C-alpha cells in the first residue's frame, strides 16, 4: 500500500477534499500560494496539473489555464521543482502530478521517477493512459513507491472495473460524468449506482471528480465515496482574477479563499485534516 | 507485415489506445462491431456496391504518356482517386465508416476536418444514409476554407468552429474527441485518416485498401506484371496506406512524400518522420512534431491536407523497418509538379497529390525506360485553385 493510500485511509469517515490547480497558472508564485491556501481550506491531497498543448480530457477552463501556464514557460520538470518550494513554505499534504502521457514520455520515465523521489511527490495520474497501456509505468511507480492513480468512468465495463479496482494504487478516481473536465450542474444519471459498483470492486479509497463545484453536489455523493476532486471551479476563480493576481496578489488570493470556502463550505469540516497532516509529515 | 496491428492495436511499438477511460468502452464496442462487419459478406457487399454505384469505383489507371516522355525514365501511371465522388479518396473511408455507424445503430456522426475534404466526405455520406452530422473545424481553417464550409452546410452538416489551441486540424481533432467522450453513448466518431486510437488506424486502412487492391489487379490486367515503384503522399497517411498495403509483400519499391513546406531546415514544414520524435498524439504512439518538452508544434504545408503534426502509426512502423521510404517534398517542388501535370496531361491534381507526383518525377528519372511507376493521385485540385494562383504569383515576384 502506498503512503498516499495509507494517508487517506487512516481516518475512517473523513471526506477528503482533493483540489486541482494547473502548475504555473499564471505563474509559479501563485501556484505556491494557492497550494498553501487550499491546504488551509482543508485539502487532503493536492493535484498539480501540468499544462499541455493538446489536453484532450480537459474542458475550456483548464484548457485556458494550460495556455496561460505554457505562455509562462511551464514544463513538467519545472512543475515538479515547484513542489519542494511548496514544502519549504509549509505544505504538508501529499502531492499528485496530473500529466498527459506525451509530456512524461519526453521527460523520460526514469528521469520522472528520480525527480518524484527527490521532491517527495506522492502520486501520478495520467488521464490519457488507460489501464491496458500502463503496465511498464505501473511497475516503475511501484518500484519507486509512487501511487499511480487510475480513472474509472460510468462506461467502464464490470470486467475492467474489477481488474482496475484490484491493481490500482493511491485511490480510485471516478469520473462522475461523461465528457471532459469542467463545471456541470448534473452528474451522469447512473452515478450513484456506478459509485456502488466501484466501492464493491476495490479496497482503495474512492474519490469522485469531473464537474464538482458546489457543496450540494458533494453532499449528494458523500455517502458513496471518500473524497471529491475540484478542478475547474478553482481554476475559474484564478482566471477571473488574472489582473489582480498580477497587481495585488495578496488580495486576489484572499478573495479566492473567501469564494471557495463559501462555495464548498470547506474551512469548517476540513480544519482537522491539516493538523493531522502536519503531525504525520 | 500485413498481419498487423496485433491484438493491442500495435504496429511494432507504434499505435495503441492512449485515450481517457471514458472512451475505452466505445473503442471496444467499435472494434467488436468492425470485426463482425468485416467478416459479414452482406456488409462487405453493401460497401462494395456503394463504392461502385455512389462513388463511381473502380477509378481508372491513366498512363501519363506525355509526362513520361518529358521526364525521360520510367513510364508514369496515375491511379485516379481524383475521379471519386467528392473528388478524393476520402469518400472510400467515409462510406465504410458511415455504413458501419448505421449498422451499429448510431444515428449521429461527428468528424474533424482540416481543409474540409474529410468534412465534405462525411457530410456527404451522412446525407446519403440519413444520419446527422457535426463537423469540427479549426476557426482559422473555417476562415481559410469558407467554400468548403458552405459546401458542408449545403449537405446538411453543422460546422462547429474550434477556438481552442491553435485553431487548426489538431485542435479540431481534440474537440471532436472531447465531444465524442461526452456523447459516446449515441454518437459515431468518423475519423478521416489512419490516425487515432486502435482500431481507427486499422479500420481506415481496411476501408482505403480498395485503392491498392484495385491498382494491383488493374496493373496486372494492363501490363501483366506489377509496377516497379509506387508513390503516394502522407499527412496522416490514409491514401498512402490504402495504396501500399496490398503491395507490402511484393517486390515493389514504395515511396511516400511528406510535406516539406518551405524546407525541412526551416520551422515551416510538416515532415513528421524526418523531423519529429516518438510520442503520443490523438490516442496513438507515433512520430510527431513537438518541442523538447513534449508540447505539440503546429506544422506547416501549402497543402492543407498534409499539415498534421503526427502520422499514422503504421507509417511510423513501415518507416522503422525500412519497407517504405519517406522523403519530404517542398511546396515549390509540389507546385512545379502540379504545373507539369496540368500542362502535359490536362489533369489538375490536389496540392496533396502533387507531393506524391513530385516524388515520383524524381524517382522516375533514375529508373530505366522499361520500368513503370504508379502514383496515387489522391484528389483533384479544384479546391486549391485559389491557393495555387496566390503561390504562383508570389513565386513570380521571387524570381
UniProtKB/TrEMBL annotation, chain A:
Gene Ontology terms for molecular function: tryptophan synthase activity
Pathway(s) served: Amino-acid biosynthesis; L-tryptophan biosynthesis; L-tryptophan from chorismate: step 5/5
Keywords on record: Amino-acid biosynthesis, Aromatic amino acid biosynthesis, Lyase, Tryptophan biosynthesis
UniProt EC number: 4.2.1.20
Pfam families: Trp_syntA
KW Amino-acid biosynthesis (keyword) present: yes
Gene3D superfamilies, A to Z: Aldolase class I (3.20.20.70)
UniProt superkingdom: Bacteria
Catalytic activity: (1S,2R)-1-C-(indol-3-yl)glycerol 3-phosphate + L-serine = D-glyceraldehyde 3-phosphate + L-tryptophan + H2O
Residues at the active site: 47, 58
Signal peptide location: none
Complexes and interactors: Tetramer of two alpha and two beta chains.
NCBIfam families recorded: trpA (TIGR00262)
Protein's name in the database: Tryptophan synthase alpha chain
Organism of derivation: Pullulanibacillus camelliae
Protein encoded by which gene: trpA
UniProtKB/TrEMBL annotation, chain B:
Any one cellular-component term (Gene Ontology): cytoplasm
EC annotation from Swiss-Prot or TrEMBL: 4.2.1.20
Domain of life: Bacteria
Complexes and interactors: Tetramer of two alpha and two beta chains.
Species name: Pullulanibacillus camelliae
InterPro entries cross-referenced by the UniProt entry: Trp_synth_b_CS, Trp_synth_beta, Trp_synth_beta/beta-like, TrpB-like_PALP, TrpB-like_PALP_sf
Key words of the record: Amino-acid biosynthesis, Aromatic amino acid biosynthesis, Lyase, Pyridoxal phosphate, Tryptophan biosynthesis
Family affiliation: Belongs to the TrpB family.
Record function comment: The beta subunit is responsible for the synthesis of L-tryptophan from indole and L-serine.
Residues covered by the Tryptophan synthase beta chain-like PALP domain: 56-379
Gene Ontology molecular function: tryptophan synthase activity
Keyword Heme: no
PROSITE patterns, A to Z: TRP_SYNTHASE_BETA
Cofactor(s) it depends on: pyridoxal 5'-phosphate
Protein name, per record: Tryptophan synthase beta chain
SUPFAM superfamilies associated with the record: Tryptophan synthase beta subunit-like PLP-dependent enzymes
Pathway(s) the chain acts in: Amino-acid biosynthesis; L-tryptophan biosynthesis; L-tryptophan from chorismate: step 5/5
Modified residues (N6-(pyridoxal phosphate)lysine): 90
Gene label: trpB
Reactions it catalyzes: (1S,2R)-1-C-(indol-3-yl)glycerol 3-phosphate + L-serine = D-glyceraldehyde 3-phosphate + L-tryptophan + H2O
Amino acid at each position: 500500500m502506498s503512503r498516499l493510500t495509507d494517508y487517506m485511509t487512516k481516518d475512517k469517515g473523513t471526506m477528503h477534499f482533493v483540489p486541482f490547480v494547473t502548475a504555473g497558472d499564471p505563474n509559479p508564485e501563485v501556484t505556491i500560494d494557492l497550494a498553501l491556501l487550499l491546504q488551509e481550506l482543508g485539502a487532503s491531497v493536492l493535484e498539480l496539473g501540468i499544462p499541455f498543448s493538446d489536453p484532450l480530457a480537459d474542458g475550456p477552463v483548464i484548457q485556458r489555464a494550460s495556455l496561460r501556464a505554457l505562455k509562462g514557460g511551464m514544463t513538467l520538470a519545472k512543475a515538479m521543482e515547484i513542489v519542494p518550494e511548496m514544502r519549504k513554505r509549509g505544505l504538508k499534504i501529499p502531492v499528485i502530478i496530473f500529466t498527459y502521457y506525451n509530456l512524461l514520455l519526453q521527460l523520460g520515465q526514469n528521469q520522472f521517477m528520480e525527480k518524484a523521489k527527490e521532491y517527495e511527490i506522492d502520486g501520478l495520474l495520467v488521464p490519457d493512459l488507460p489501464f491496458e497501456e500502463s503496465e511498464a509505468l505501473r511497475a516503475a511507480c511501484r518500484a519507486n513507491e509512487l501511487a499511480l492513480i487510475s480513472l474509472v468512468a460510468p462506461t467502464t465495463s464490470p470486467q475492467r472495473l474489477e481488474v482496475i479496482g484490484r491493481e490500482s494504487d493511491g485511490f480510485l478516481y471516478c469520473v462522475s460524468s461523461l465528457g471532459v473536465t469542467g463545471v456541470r450542474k448534473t452528474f451522469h444519471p447512473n452515478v450513484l449506482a456506478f459509485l456502488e459498483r466501484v466501492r464493491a470492486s476495490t479496497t482503495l479509497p474512492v474519490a469522485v471528480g469531473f464537474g464538482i463545484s458546489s457543496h450540494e453536489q458533494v453532499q449528494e455523493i458523500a455517502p458513496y465515496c471518500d473524497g471529491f476532486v475540484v478542478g475547474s471551479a478553482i481554476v475559474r476563480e484564478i482566471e477571473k482574477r488574472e489582473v489582480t493576481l498580477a497587481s495585488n496578489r495578496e488580495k486576489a488570493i484572499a478573495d479566492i479563499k473567501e469564494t471557495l470556502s463559501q462555495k464548498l463550505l470547506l474551512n469548517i469540516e476540513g480544519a482537522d485534516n491539516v493538523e493531522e497532516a502536519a503531525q504525520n509529515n | 507485415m500485413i498481419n498487423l496491428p496485433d491484438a493491442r492495436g500495435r504496429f511494432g511499438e507504434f499505435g495503441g489506445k492512449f485515450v481517457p477511460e471514458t472512451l475505452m468502452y466505445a473503442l471496444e464496442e467499435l472494434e467488436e462491431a468492425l470485426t463482425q462487419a468485416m467478416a459479414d459478406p452482406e456488409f462487405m457487399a453493401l460497401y462494395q456496391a456503394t463504392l461502385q454505384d455512389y462513388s463511381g469505383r473502380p477509378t481508372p489507371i491513366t498512363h501519363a504518356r506525355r509526362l513520361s516522355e518529358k521526364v525521360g525514365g520510367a513510364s508514369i501511371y496515375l491511379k485516379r482517386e481524383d475521379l471519386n465522388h467528392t473528388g478524393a479518396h476520402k469518400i472510400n473511408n467515409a462510406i465504410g465508416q458511415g455504413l458501419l455507424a448505421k449498422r451499429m445503430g448510431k444515428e449521429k456522426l461527428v468528424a474533424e476536418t482540416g481543409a474540409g475534404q474529410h468534412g465534405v466526405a462525411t457530410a456527404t455520406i451522412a446525407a446519403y444514409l440519413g444520419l446527422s452530422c457535426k463537423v469540427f473545424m479549426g476557426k482559422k481553417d473555417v476562415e481559410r476554407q469558407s467554400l468548403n464550409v458552405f459546401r458542408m452546410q449545403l449537405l446538411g452538416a453543422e460546422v462547429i468552429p474550434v477556438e481552442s489551441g491553435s485553431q487548426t486540424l489538431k485542435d479540431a481533432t481534440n474537440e471532436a474527441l472531447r465531444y465524442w467522450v461526452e456523447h459516446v453513448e449515441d454518437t459515431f466518431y468518423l475519423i478521416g485518416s489512419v490516425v487515432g486510437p486502435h482500431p481507427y488506424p486499422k479500420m481506415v486502412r481496411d476501408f482505403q485498401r480498395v485503392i491498392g487492391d484495385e491498382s494491383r489487379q488493374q496493373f496486372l490486367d494492363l501490363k501483366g506484371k506489377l509496377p516497379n515503384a509506387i508513390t503516394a503522399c502522407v499527412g496522416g497517411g490514409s491514401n498512402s496506406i490504402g495504396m501500399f498495403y496490398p503491395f507490402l509483400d511484393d517486390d515493389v519499391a514504395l515511396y511516400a512524400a511528406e510535406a516539406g513546406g518551405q524546407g525541412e531546415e526551416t520551422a515551416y514544414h510538416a515532415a513528421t518522420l524526418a523531423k519529429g520524435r516518438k510520442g503520443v498524439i490523438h490516442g496513438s504512439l507515433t512520430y510527431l512534431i513537438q518541442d523538447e518538452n513534449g508540447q505539440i508544434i503546429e506544422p506547416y504545408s501549402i497543402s492543407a491536407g498534409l499539415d498534421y503534426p503526427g502520422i499514422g502509426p503504421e507509417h511510423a512502423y513501415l518507416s522503422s523497418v525500412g519497407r517504405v521510404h519517406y522523403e519530404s517534398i517542398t511546396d515549390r517542388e509540389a507546385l512545379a509538379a502540379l504545373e507539369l501535370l496540368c500542362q502535359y496531361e490536362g489533369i489538375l491534381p490536389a496540392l496533396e497529390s502533387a507531393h506524391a507526383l513530385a516524388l515520383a518525377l524524381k524517382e522516375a528519372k533514375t529508373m530505366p525506360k522499361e520500368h513503370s511507376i504508379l502514383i496515387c493521385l489522391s484528389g483533384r485540385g479544384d479546391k486549391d485553385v485559389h491557393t495555387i494562383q496566390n503561390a504562383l504569383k508570389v513565386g513570380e515576384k521571387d524570381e
